[in-house]
Amino acid sequence: MRRHSYRRTALGLVVLAATLASACGGPGESGPQSTDTAAALTEKPTCGKEPVTMSAYFETGFPMPKALTDKFSAQFPNVKWEVREDQFAVITQNAPRVLADDPPDLMRLPQVSELVKDNLLKNLDGYAKVFGWDSWPASQLEQLRMKPGGGARGEGSLFAMGLNFSVTGVLYNKTLAERIGMTSAPTTLAEFDDALAKAKQANITPIVQFNGGATGGFAFPLQNLMASFGEPGPINDWIFQKPGATIDTLSNQKAAQHLADWIKAGYFDRDANAMDYAKMMSKFQAGEGLFMFNGDWESGNLDKQMPGKVGFFPFPAEKGDKVAAMSAPLTFGIAANAKHADCAAFFLDWVATNADAREIAVAVGGSHPMGPADAPMPEVKKGTVTAETLAAGAAISQDNGAMDFIANATGAIYAKSWTPQLQKLFAGEQTADGLLKSVQSDYEDQVGS
Amino acid sequence: MSTLASVVEGRPATGPRAARGARRGRRRGQGWVAWLFAAPAIVAYTLFVLVPLVRTVQYSFYEWDGIGPSPWVGFDNYVRVFTDPELSGTIVNAFQLIVFFSGIPVLFGLAIAATIRRIATSRLAAVARVVLFVPQVIPLVAAGITWSWLMASDGLVNQLLSAIGLGGVTRAWLGDFATALPAVGVIGAWVLLGLCTLLLLAGMSKIDPALYEAARIDGAGPLREFFSITVPSLRQEIGVCVTVTVIAALASFDIIYIATQGGPGNTTMVPGLEIYYQAFVERQVGVASALAVVLVVLVLVCVLPIQRLTREQS
């Protein structure tokens, strides 16, 4: 008996030692080679005439990319697509490993900065030049630019593209709005506050907004308020990690305080801290809330589920002048070691310029297509949410009011800073001032490291 | 005869020693065969348990984002696990969960199992067994979603409370800073109660009925029977229950991930979930590995004494 257990221990030790020896040295030193500079192209790449199978990695629950690839295959029958789908959270977590180990030709991407730092994405500058993407409105692609190898976002080489760009704002239930006498969308912050108070008096939940789990949805109203009290520029600088940027500014303090006042007044559904995105959607669709801060990715869905009953407006500025909103391209990239990068780039250009593709971007995706400012716009039925979000998208790019999302500043800032802090704010365990200070200090830790 | 004898006895050295030698040889041969049979399991165990374990220990000494280069940082990650309140707080939460994951299921399980045993012949006992074991059969994801609806501010729990005049205490149980952890604990207790009850019931069935008869003749009531016969006889089963549930509490992940994802404001964050966030959201593979190693040690430190305590006298 004894000898057996000794032998077992000895064997265990041998195995452990052997594995340790074989695993010596730090992990992950052999990353993919840097592709710092994009190859200069003299003519537009194509998918050729030979049969080609593109590997793609898309987000579950969003049919637009699949609709686009199907259409593309119909026009270019030699191109087949092998599509793999996952939830966005899964894509976010797996992105570096997938791009390194099994590089897809086209992939839905989370925020790009860490991927660029690890040289996992193809530098698209060469394609941008030859296809003329550089002449599009600069704000469309700003969020996808970065200096090769890392640094601040917002300028430098292009590392990803959008399939369309989405706009966020306020969705409202028209039936409930009528009950409080709100006949048109509020155009100033005071008007919006007034609608909230009236709804509360009428025993209608003024705002149904998710803030539970690991995704604090109160970041939506908070950032809208920030843009309402201040300028989008400094907020973008902070998100892009420009040196010296801070979120703890005077106008942002006003915004956070205003949000705290809304919470105190009881304007939010009182389950907010236990509500996830799906639950918020089902509550809004059941008519259990007047306003919801959300984006145009739901406009197609709402036009189908509650036709004619939902409206959309960009959040009004304090004084009602310029409008700013979170607006981001639906980001797709090409892996640094992708086998068919040229064909993928050709596809991305086709999405922005082909009339059928632009139609799909609007009809299926519900958002504004990418591309030159004067490109033809598909027809949309008036009075639909889609029509209102498209109009808002146009207004925002006219006012140059597009902002990235404050949750995208670093990889961990949303789950580990904004979310717990906003949950504390809702529970009355954190002050507006403390919220911004705490997030800023986490941000400095993360950016510094 | 002589030739035969010389063949049988003469060639090998001497009689008894030869026999011993042959036996030893055979045993050695059998040993190799035994190892051969065990080989697939050993290979799988090495590949899927030992190697990841060693790798985790190795990663815990580096700062690594999962892809790029990884500088050696010594024990820095471990220092962070114990000094960063966000990380050490998760360990405190896990210990609080033990009360719900172990305490409630084992105590209630004992009481329920004793009750079911007393009514063993009635149909009610069979129904009770099924009802209690259902949580083990329902997928945890479905259970988590159901519970989050039950505990919402307009959910069944609050409707019942309002109906009996306790409208004042109603709240979004999973979204409230004070009640989120206990609320998650209740879900865990609900899941594990059935398992413990079933284990204890099985243990009770092997207790000699004569013991109860003797006790009854000596004038023992049901309570006395329970404490003097049932509980001592179930020493081992209770040990198994406590071990399994303590591990479930310390290494909990699924229930929390579904019900609260660690929120609100980190009040329900446990080491298992934090490891996942550190590794896949923050991309701090080193810190995640260090916390994982600490968790393994913690589980062993808690579970080994329980094993010893419950085994000694059997």
Sum this structure up briefly:
The complex is a heterodimer of chains A (449) and B (314). Chain A contains 18 helices and 11 strands. With 449 residues, chain A is an alpha/beta fold.
Which descriptors apply to this entry?
heterodimer, A: D-Maltodextrin-Binding Protein, domain 2, D-Maltodextrin-Binding Protein, domain 2, 9-stranded mixed sheet, two-stranded antiparallel ribbon, B: about 325 residues, mainly alpha, MetI-like fold, 2 domains, 14 helices
pLDDT averaged residue by residue of chain B: 87
Low-confidence residue ranges of chain A: none
Which structural class do you get from the secondary structure elements of chain A?
Answer: alpha/beta
Tally the beta strands of chain B. Answer: 0
Gyration radius of chain B, in Å: 28 Å
Say which CATH homologous superfamily of the largest domain in chain B is assigned.
Answer: MetI-like
Strand content of chain A: 5-15%
Report, as a whole number of angstroms, the end-to-end distance of chain A. Answer: 53 Å
Following the backbone from N to C, one meets helices and strands of chain A in this order, namely: HEHEHEHHHEEEHHHHHHEHEEHHEHEHH
The termini of chain B sit apart by 58 Å
Blueprint of the fold:
The complex is a heterodimer of chains A (about 450) and B (about 325).
Chain A: H1 2-22, E1 52-59, H2 64-75, E2 79-86, H3 88-101, E3 106-108, H4 113-117, H5 125-131, H6 138-142, E4 145-146, E5 157-158, E6 161-173, H7 174-179, H8 189-201, H9 219-229, H10 232-239, H11 250-264, H12 277-285, E7 291-295, H13 299-305, E8 310-313, E9 325-333, H14 341-353, H15 355-363, E10 368-369, H16 385-398, E11 402-403, H17 413-427, H18 432-448
Parallel strand pairs in A: 1-2, 1-3, 9-11
Antiparallel strand pairs in A: 3-9, 4-5, 6-7, 6-8, 6-9, 6-10
Helix pairs in contact in A: 2-15, 9-11, 11-18, 14-15, 17-18
Chain B: H1 2-10, H2 15-59, H3 76-83, H4 85-118, H5 123-137, H6 140-150, H7 156-163, H8 180-205, H9 209-217, H10 222-233, H11 235-250, H12 254-259, H13 271-280, H14 285-311
Helix pairs in contact in B: 2-14, 3-14, 4-8, 4-11, 5-8, 8-11, 11-14, 13-14
